[in-house]
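User: Predict structure, ligand zinc ion.
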Amino acid sequence: MVLRSLQLLFLSLSILLGGSGALFAKDIDISGIRFGQNGNVTRFVLDVSEKAEPSIFLLADPYRVVIDLPEADWRASDSVKASGAVDGFRHGLFSPGIYRIVLDLKDPAVIKSSFHLPPRGGYGHRLVLDLETTSRDRFLVAVKDSKKARPVIVAKATPEVVSPRRSVTGKRVIVIDPGHGGPDPGNLGVIGVHEKVIVLAIARAVRDELVSTGRYDVRMTRDRDIFWPVRERFRIARRHGADLFISIHADSINRPDVKGGSVYNLSETASDKEAARLAARENKSDVIAGVNLEQADDEVSSILIDLAQRETMNFSAQFAAILVSELERDVPMLRRAHRFANLGMLKAPDVPSVLLEAGYLTNKQNARFLNSRDGQRRIAKAVRRAIDRYFEQMVALGR
Ligand SMILES: [Zn+2]
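Assistant: Predicted complex:
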């Protein structure tokens, strides 16, 4: 209890000190990983630069082990093959100060032990995790226990989050949201570049284009490889007092011939099967990054009920229509490019929001376009033209 209060005190202090946040979270290097198997025990070893106290917990459906460490530099190979109970792994910056590794399990497995090994026999510091396969029932009990027992890694104060205040410059505030990030890479296209990387590049091009006009105050939900939960993205937009929120993604489908972008508005019912499938995939981002969904409040559902925010919906639809028409001039687009789906990141009740699926990473030509400077610039210019037109309309409406 005393420890907990101290941690809270330090957290407040670190926020007061302007988010240096280095009181608990210190940076480490992860230089290697290994999997081993001995009977029904799977051993996961991390080579680390120094002793680091992990915060480990389990998540069900699908079975996952989440290992949170202080902010880390990942130098280990991503092509190491998982074995034993582990099917695969992901990693990345989860939030400032917390580096997350997610192990996907084939079968339920609980943490038998986790410990630190000091340098010895040619090895440096190691963090060892032994997982023991078990029944579903025992796993579910362990999920609950792991939540109670785990130590808290204190997140650094987040510079990305600002106080709720409208732009002092009087400019329109545009919030650009590059999808995915950190332990959630998004989909991997045929050219071998993850969605999180490509959409960040597109978002930066859009930001630069908008800033160059001098007319807009542009903010990004992320400007590096870091994760935000789905609903935190629109909360960031609200905190910035956004006039417009644009989430940028790139799609995938198991048909390599399909290419072209599309623009989504929020709707409780999807416009078509493809849109429903897309919403399911994009909303899964939190599951992939190991977010504990039980902790989620039901803000979103109450917001959805309150769709008396008709005005926001109308403005969102108007902007989407303009954006589609501008993109169609210069960017490959799907035939019916204006679509609707129940997308979690579009649920700000008071910020007109769209999700741009810039194209398909499963089509080689489309993926190359999205990954090229030229393609990114074309998208950026089309987005800028659309935003210009949209706000001209707003002015005409006296908004
Ligand atoms: Zn996406």
